[in-house]
């Protein structure tokens, strides 16, 4: 299918906001999925009737359309719910859209409680659904669709589950309650207190105390009365069925970080962490110079990796039936005491003229902290007689799936995923197959994320395999299939597949030529897709399994979709550094002529996050940059956007290529990108600039500081300048910690290489950035001043966080970037 690109003037773009929508032809652009190597013939860009302007690109993004967000299925599978929110608006508007194609209806405020069921839980026969709305508990009869509110209180409910008895259990803070379905009685079944257990009535122990009790009858009588009351209460608690459960005292040195109740209501697994550990210290503040009262506000900010000493968590098993408590020991985890950083520690010791002696010691562990999942790291079987936990080492080198012996409180390793670099914080979904001893899970052990089955005591079985990435797995409602997303046909193209568990038969369910996310309908007969292409922002579609794709929403504005956007070509740049091929997007200049005597200037954009994919066939999350690159192309530039090593979507080796050397392999890839453009699209290698934000800003620094002849100018937005000042969860994966691996930090931090700057550099930062602190730029600026480097400029944005919000700030930022390139590259 080939789309019709209409050459319509962009006069409507001059309007501040265009949120109106109209129908589109329903077709999608044709995607060329063949790898573009050297000497390729790229498609000429479309002609435009009106040039883009920075004012148009950086205006309030609502002019592009107010798109559906957070879409999910209704319980009957006949409609979907989603929200829309104007840029900068404090609240969202919610809608229900029938899959028969009728127009979406806006939900009123008094309807929201019956629609907010995205993360509800089902009872065993799937006839009732419990969910939390605005902190209160509701239950829905799925046959009659009747919704009943079970709590109405100011203390929010944190979690809910159906018990095998049909009763509903829920927890608030450290307390667990059960609602009896026959009577509606609310029973507290667990009262957890993080305090030392009261000692009760104590016998006199010192000479003076004993003498007092022996000689003074009144004191002795008071002692006997207190003991009698204590014994009476103990007997009453045992015999009186109206008394609530005994209190669990777990000590005063820790806090509860997670808890999970078994489906039979007997066991609770509690995760505890040292209460002295904090995400910040008193000195971790961010100054807001434009406080509402006219003063400088000290805003709390997160700790730096150099100071974040994560002690890990420990697990405790509580038996609510016998009131027995067991500490879950970690000795059953394979490699729990290995010195996995021995080579790193030895290298750093040698650099200091010292030696390192390796010794085994228990490692700090915690429940797996996956950055994308909504499931718990603690998974019970339906019966509640078995439970698995997913744990990770705080040193980031191991992930375990282990079963818990409920009688002994011990662990048995079912699967260990070890990585000498770091275990991915994605691709960790797992669970039990119903009515079995088999676990299913994702693992990167072959170098790519794939699905495995593991029966206890047996070897794992791979359900998928190949050089592609599997993610977002869903167990079908009848447990016959596991559904998943994968980029099988091209690293930049997503589709949905399913594999039959019994036979391993694999089936492709969608034929999309871009990027998508999916949700399986409750009955497993259809997919809800949030899907995009290179020049079409994401809209909602329904794909009946085995049926025809149907578009549900059309929220892209006429002004955006009628413009002749240039769809970037996705090419494969051959690596001269042993990396195979580096995928990149390429935008060609207006009137492009490969044989022109005048060579073109070029710009390379460096995406943020490090572990992120942008050279794909979907609509870029960097939508402003997409439009800016169209503008640059109209003005005679070639623009390249590379998925340098470390990017997402290409497997484990690509991801971990940056381990202990951030900024080295990526710059090598940028060099190959410049050479590719010079060879294939008539670019003047002496007229290339680069820019990017966050990790992209860091990469701009590393390129200009370490390869001063590669780029003639660079712009670094909200950039990392010293990794020791970034957060622990991200940085410690890649560089370990500064106290353990200072070599990696000095090798990877731009401030350590600032003396290499020779070309014009623009540094731009938001003062209220609580992700990459404004202090990062301040420290680098002072370093450049002391190095007497005259070729840099700075711009600050007093009200902006990491992701800028004000259109005026975006406009100012990109005017400066554009001016830099115009001055230095043409």
Automatic annotation (TrEMBL):
Residues 377-533 form the Dipeptidylpeptidase IV N-terminal domain. Keywords: Signal. Pfam families: DPPIV_N (PF00930), Peptidase_S9 (PF00326). Gene3D superfamilies: alpha/beta hydrolase, Dipeptidylpeptidase IV, N-terminal domain, TolB, C-terminal domain. It comes from the Bacteria. Residues 1-19 form the signal peptide. The keyword rRNA processing does not apply. The keyword Signal applies. Residues 630-825 form the Peptidase S9 prolyl oligopeptidase catalytic domain. This is S9 family peptidase. It comes from Shewanella schlegeliana. The lineage of its organism: Bacteria, Pseudomonadati, Pseudomonadota, Gammaproteobacteria, Alteromonadales.
